[in-house]
Write a structure and sequence with these properties.
This protein has about 475 residues and is α/β, with parallel strands linked by helices. It is built from 10 helices and 41 strands. Strand 2 (about 30) and strand 3 (about 35) form a beta hairpin.
């Protein structure tokens, strides 16, 4: 299907009362992106253009969240039903009278692009005024039933409360996703009337108007009823997240990724994981993260907007954000890697180490209990336990430069701005405040003083004082 075949109207104006939240329903996060984002991606994946999103509740926030995505917006004010929402976009629809109009809701995160493609292809080839998507449910409950003609087209959509006993036995229901001939849709929208107690304009009435005018309405049945499950509560949001996680993990495993426990693994929609990568239990990958072949991640690891190179290991209980980990490097356990950090090939970041805005050179290591911030560390550097770069003076941040082959002893404080020259040694327990030349040894600590016998004398003194304080007979 080419982009010129269809346009779309996504209905996203509702408040989502059952969410019991101040946030607009379509902005609630699902796998790291807004609920509406999943629908937009599905529509964009089938080449539909333009896409108009009808907004109402918190319209400014919704528009801001999707700025730069190539979407158009129409405002529904006040909200008077689904038909009224489509009416809000009629001027946008009229701009492209040759393009099929796809209408769907913004709370359908499980909808697959393949299903939308089937709907649009069937509509294009069938020549109907409208083609709607249906699903078959074991228990249709309160949903509207689709009553078909003998040739398979739609005779009517009958609401449950109006259905006869025979019609209530029908298990095929209207999913609320439509493809329309634009001219027929605009004609029917002009005839809509609020013929209900709520005073609202219903999109399902458009189907009735088309049938009354003798126009054909076709049906395409979705293979998976889960695809059209809308999200109206936090419980349904969690259920959708679970199904999306399962679907995502199944697709990754089919591509050659090893996922030890799909039930606890979270992989966002924009994440890329190469074959032969291993994701262990309770791994969370978000944003635009990329994990290369042979990398092992987890367990209990969260990675956001990072590049994880081939053969790397991200061990237990690590958080990485907006950083790059190059080939063969090891991070963790219990490491925090903050934005703008690059960990070189074969480098090692150990337990309880924090890196911030730092380039750790190839083969360098910071194995234990260190903070390295605003630093450039050359290749082959050893950073001992308890090392701290003092990069902040209370007003400004300052850089630390550690050149190739430097050995930094344990419990060292490097007061930035400072440069440690190539191959230099920093003695353990030092506070270094001046640049260290290449190949030098730097010590920045007080001279050790030993007083022989001092501890024994002190213990004896305390013992004697204790006896004298008890008092004699009749004492306190």
């Amino acid at each position: 299907m080419t982009p010129l075949d269809a346009q779309a109207v996504i209905l996203a104006a509702g408040k989502g009362t059952r969410m019991r939240s101040a946030r607009a329903k379509v902005l609630h996060p699902l796998l790291g992106v807004p609920l509406l984002d999943h629908v937009v991606r599905a529509v964009q994946s089938v080449g539909v253009d333009p896409i108009t999103v009808v907004v109402g509740h918190q319209a400014e926030a919704v528009e801001a969240a999707f700025r730069g995505r190539g979407l158009a917006f129409a405002r529904q004010e006040p909200p008077l039903g689904t038909g009224h929402a489509v009416l809000a976009a009629r001027e946008r629809i009229a701009v492209h009278p040759e393009r099929t109009v796809l209408v769907l809701y913004g709370d359908l995160p499980l909808l697959r692009p393949e299903t939308l493609g089937r709907l649009l292809d069937a509509h294009r080839s069938g020549g109907a005024a409208a083609t709607l998507l249906s699903v078959v449910l074991d228990d249709p409950a309160e949903y509207g039933r689709i009553v078909r003609e003998a040739d398979g087209s739609v005779r009517a959509i009958v609401e449950n409360k109006d259905a006869s006993l025979e019609q209530k036995r029908i298990r095929e229901i209207n999913a609320g996703i439509y493809a329309f001939q634009p001219g027929r849709l605009l004609e029917a929208l002009a005839q809509l009337r609020p013929q209900n107690a709520q005073g609202e304009y219903y999109l399902t009435d458009v189907i009735g108007l088309l049938r009354k005018a003798g126009k054909r309405v076709d049906v395409v049945t979705a293979p998976d009823s889960h695809e059209v499950l809308g999200v109206n509560s936090h419980s349904e949001l969690a259920a959708a997240a679970r199904l999306l996680r399962q679907r995502r993990c199944q697709a990754l495993m089919a591509s050659g990724v090893s996922i030890e426990d799909p039930e606890t693994t979270f992989v966002g929609p924009e994440v890329e994981v190469a074959p032969d990568a291993v994701l262990r239990a309770f791994t969370v990958l978000e944003g635009r993260t990329k994990v290369a072949a042979g990398a092992v991640v987890g367990p209990f690891v969260r990675i956001v907007d990072c590049e994880v190179g081939p053969g790397t290991q991200i061990l237990d209980h690590c958080l990485l954000r907006e950083c790059v980990v190059e080939e063969g490097a090891t991070v963790g356990p219990f490491a925090h890697v903050r934005p703008e950090t690059r960990i070189g090939a074969g480098a090692r970041v150990g337990n309880f180490v924090e890196l911030k805005k730092t380039h750790l050179g190839d083969g360098s290591k910071a194995p234990h209990l260190s903070y390295i911030g605003d630093a450039t560390v050359g290749p082959g550097v050893n950073i001992g336990a308890g090392t701290i770069t003092c990069n902040y003076d209370g007003v400004d941040k300052h850089p630390t430069r550690i050149e190739a082959g430097v050995f930094v002893g344990s419990d060292t404080t490097l007061v930035a701005p400072i440069t440690i020259g190539e191959g230099a040694y920093i003695a353990a327990g030092s506070a270094i405040t001046e640049d260290v030349p290449a190949g030098a040894l730097a010590l920045g600590r007080a001279r050790q003083v030993i007083k022989k016998g001092w501890a024994d004398a002190r213990r004896q003194q305390k013992a004697g004082a204790g006896k004298g304080s008890r008092g004699g007979p009749g004492g306190a």
